[in-house]
Amino acid sequence: MSNIPLNALESQENFETEDIILNKPNDDGHRIVVGNPNFYMPNPDDIQLDKVILSPIRSEESIDEGNKLDNIVKDEENSDEKDIMANFVASDDRFYPEGGFKAYTVVFGAFAGLVPVFGAFNMTSVIETYLQNHQLKDQTTTAIGWIFSLFQFMTCFTSIFSGFIFDNYGCKSLMIGGTILYFLSLFLMGECTRIWHFVLCYSLLNGFASGIMMSPLVSVSAHYFKRKRGHAMSLALTGGSIGGVTFPLILRPFFDKNEYKWGIRTISFVSLALLILSTCLMKERFYSNDKFRLSTMIDLKGLKEWNYLFCVLGVLTGEMSFNSALTFYGSYCNHVGLTINDTTIQITIMNTLSTVGRYLPGLLSDKLGRYNCAIFCLVMLTLVQYVAWLPFGKYGINAMYAISCLYGLGSGSIYSLLPVCVGQISDTKDFGKRYSTMYFVVSFGILISSPISGAIIGDKSYFNYQMYIVFCGALSGVAAVLCYISRYASTKTWGWIVF
User: Fold this and answer.
1) Are residues 144 and 238 in the same domain?
2) Of these four, 149, 208, 218, 423, which has the most CB atoms within 10 Å of its CB?
3) What residues have CB less than 8 Å from 257, skipping those under 6 apart?
4) Are both 158 and 35 inside the same structural domain?
5) Which H/E stretch holds residue 319?
6) Do 287 and 358 have their domain in common?
7) In sequence order, which residues have a C-beta less than 8 Å from that of residue 12 and are 6 or more positions away?
8) pLDDT tens per residue, the chain (499 residues)?
9) Run of H or E residues at 40
10) 459 CB-near residues (< 8 Å, 6+ apart)
């Protein structure tokens, strides 16, 4: 100590690097740091292992500023506890652009691809009504229902493989192969005249093509958005509604002239152009590194999570309701006195309102919660079926206009929100696998939903059609309950919370 000059200790250059501590404590029991008379070292007994704080002497203003900062941190922690959805977002440490030219180009590519892929789902009622009155007029409703049920089953079932390939290898190979098969299957469908023809070309081949493209088309937007994921995916999924609007309008003049073959061929060429555009624009950002085996393609471990399990069951019953209702909606319109032209218009109106239904709830879900919006829309759809469709459907075209509008709004909302709910409780790199696992389970429900509805309709009496509506409404009501249980399993509360 005595050998060190005092001026060296007091110099500004050595202030930060050569602080010397006196051996004798001051009157307060603290040891003084020489060179900084306002800074005290605490006693060793005062130091906590989990919280070491060196407290310099501060002015009253600095103390007030520190208190304000502490209050801000506490407020942020409280707000995070209230906003569970924000915690899920924060748990993902990946970077998401949340916008920009590249991100929205990918969203547009997914939109373009979903026009034909989900558009095929939305035009099933138009095709079913035409076949029931022409090529397959001698067949039963249940037999015809199997064509569309097998198509929907194949689409969902094959997504289990496309989800794994997308997560690990990207979307290009899936989109190229799916585009070729989709075009060929629709083009050949124009030549079909018997049930086994339609099963081979439409149910199996087109269903397989749609299935291998569905996972990348739905999942790729999630690679660019997290906080705005509901908005982005709803934009992409509106493509299905656009396809449901435009495809029946394209088919209508051909069906009026009984030119079924060229109507289907026209759809196939339009679909080819849209799918090529989609393939060129889509690009993934994340990859998994899983080995090619069944356990990595099906997320069986995820089904042990209560929130994911009940979400899958909710989507299962919801999809059974929608597909049953949409498949025989045109047949119901015919039964209550509407012509084929009027029926096509009803389906077009339904799909037009479905576009609005897919976009607005997706936009609101980022602020109000994805699960909250999905549950509300399922309840609303159930009420539409029991309060509007069941008692007033028999009153003809004017009543059906209102029912088509309301049902389109409700069903469109569900189609855009259910995939986002899965993304809400899934890691982004596993989203494709978990989404395809969900629809692998859903495919078995869809397989039996249309034949069950066809069996309920039976001899096409008005009472049987009423029971068919009751069946569809019950399924959507159960879906709302199951999604609510999934929400509780995620948030541990039955009350309101943004999730």
Assistant:
1) yes
2) 218
3) none
4) no
5) helix 306-327
6) yes
7) none
8) 444 444 444 444 443 433 444 444 454 444 444 444 444 444 444 444 333 333 333 444 444 544 444 454 444 444 443 444 443 444 456 677 777 888 889 889 999 999 998 887 778 778 887 888 888 888 887 788 788 888 888 888 887 777 778 777 778 888 999 999 999 999 999 888 888 899 999 999 999 998 889 888 887 887 787 777 777 877 887 787 788 788 888 888 888 788 888 989 999 999 999 999 999 988 877 666 665 665 666 777 778 888 889 988 998 998 889 888 888 888 898 888 888 788 888 888 887 887 777 777 766 777 788 888 888 889 999 999 999 999 998 888 888 999 998 888 888 777 777 777 887 787 766 776 787 788 888 888 888 888 888 889 888 888 999 999 999 999 999 999 999 999 888 888 888 887 7
9) strand 40-41
10) none
Quick one: 37 and 107 in the same domain? no
In a domain, 52, yes or no: no
Which 3-state string (H, E, C) describes the chain?
CCCCCHHHHHCCCCCCCCCEECCCCCCCCCEEEECCCCCEECCHHHCECCECCCCCCCCHHHHHHHHHHHHHHHHHHHHHHHCHHHHHHHCCCCCCCCCCHHHHHHHHHHHHHHHHHHHHHHCHHHHHHHHHHCCCCCCCHHHHHHHHHHHHHHHHHCHHHHHHHHHHHCCHHHHHHHHHHHHHHHHHHCCCCCHHHHHHHHHHHHHHHHHHHHHHHHHHHHHCCCCCHHHHHHHHHHHHHHHHHHHHHHHHHHHHCCCHHHHHHHHHHHHHHHHHHHHHHCCCCCCCCCCCCHHHHCCCCHHHCHHHHHHHHHHHHHHHHHHHHHHCHHHHHHHCCCCHHHHHHHHHHHHHHHHHHHHHHHHHHHHHCHHHHHHHHHHHHHHHHHHHHHHHHHHCHHHHHHHHHHHHHHHHHHHHHHHHHHHHCCCHHHHHHHHHHHHHHHHHHHHHHHHHHHHHHCCCCHHHHHHHHHHHHHHHHHHHHHHHHHHHHHHCCCCCCCC
In a domain, 160, yes or no: yes
Host domain of residue 466: 99-444+453-491
Give dist(CA 253, CA 266) in Å, integer: 12
Amino acid at 86: A
Report the DSSP pairing between strands 20-21 and 31-34.
antiparallel
| Amino acid symbol at 150 | L
Q: Are the CB atoms for 278 and 171 separated by under 8 Å?
A: no
